[in-house]
Amino acid sequence: xxxxxxxxxxxxxxxxxxxxxxxxxxxxxxxxxxxxxxxxxxxxxxxxxxxxxxxxxxxxxxxxxxxxxxxxxxxxxxxxxxxxxxxxxxxxxxxxxxxxxxxxxxxxxxxxxxxxxxxxxxxxxxxxxxxxxxxxxxxxxxxxxxxxxxxxxxxxxxxxxxxxxxxxxxxxxxxxxxxxxxxxxxxxxxxxxxxxxxxxxxxxxxxxxxxxxxxxxxxxxxxxxxxxxxxxxxxxxxxxxxxxxxxxxxxxxxxxxxxxxxxxxxxxxxxxxxxxxxxxxxxxxxxxxxxxxxxxxxxxxxxxxxxxxxxxxxxxxxxxxxxxxxxxxxxxxxxxxxxxxxxxxxxxxxxxxxxxxxxxxxxxxxxxxxxxxxxxxxxxxxxxxxxxxxxxxxxxxxxxxxxxxxxxxxxxxxxxxxxxxxxxxxxxxxxxxxxxxxxxxxxxxxxxxxxxxxxxxxxxxxxxxxxxxxxxxxxxxxxxxxxxxx
Length: 486
Prior knowledge:
The chain is of the alpha/beta class. The chain has helices at residues 19-28, 48-55, 77-81, 89-102, 176-179, 190-202, 237-245, 249-260, 267-278, 354-361, 393-396, 403-417, 451-469; strands at residues 9-11, 62-63, 86-87, 106-108, 113-118, 124-128, 133-136, 139-141, 147-149, 161-163, 183-186, 212-216, 282-291, 303-309, 312-315, 324-327, 330-335, 337-340, 344-346, 366-367, 370-371, 385-387, 483-485.
């Protein structure tokens, strides 16, 4: 089926593409992506984002990240042409929006799916919060991770606690005692660091105490990416995928935990952290946090907390081989507020979630909060309900929530739906005709080898078709399938 024949409908609670993504990046003032320029949604051209930057004269929005200097990547041509540079947030957004304009689709925004069922014709019917119903032959869940924020037990009842995506609580600017208190950020990954740095930019400088305290349950880990670089290296990606897929389920869960290990921080951010810590504006602590027994639970006065340092070591200079200092103590602080950035606990059966509704209607095996989808990413066998993104981690791999993993998942779904069959139509002929070889061309010196020559020709033709079949899939496969909107 060609792109023009397939009808695609995208349902989103926002009013446009990348709305939540842009909102979160703007909230934290993130200027550059963590993923390199080779990670993007274009399914055909691996250089598309880099080419876009060059064509629009925006090469200055590609940041040298140091990835190209990694010994494992030096031999790759990608390192020489800039594919390991980091695109700016604005460049990436503009590229994606331009790409979306080229794709045939209908965008239904400002609404959510509140019900899902199959009718008598075995067609999905999705009820929307705006009262409309969408009918679709196939449905692709690209909802991102489903679950609830992780909250350390010791601060669950703290009234000054908020998640980083929530707006700050109103504070009386006329109360200098409260306004000058530090902010505590809880978490040990990149998001926690970005929140801490953003709070530093907003905070008033103080000569006597740090403006922000970053508390993590283990020392910060410096890495360019949140998964092993082998998953990005084209020479080793297929091996990583094969090794992961052929593991039993328990081993896959362990691999997911090991791949991320609680989060990591790129060198660029570690350098900023170290400078802020050296200036006395930031305090990085490793340990467990809890509300102090002296806390009167009055949010207008901030919160009293205790941090129990572990007998461990923590980085001091943000390098790969950091100088360390042993610490073991208990500290008490009066703070303005606590901001959570500890990630989420996957739970696809969460009450009132779309996946929860699907699980109650079409139960499937659940492990560690993730559905055990099929090899072709179906929710259940012989069912055109697909899962991409972090929700499909158990069958996609630890990069499921990243751009590269999502693109690979889109290829799998597109292949299953037959969305790339149109790529083969032009080659379903005798491939030798492209070389102007014709059966009608007789030559006195030529001889026919009979069955052996015919078998060889068929073998070559089969090889040609299989090679064509390995082409990247069409972009529109990342959305839903044929639909009607009532």
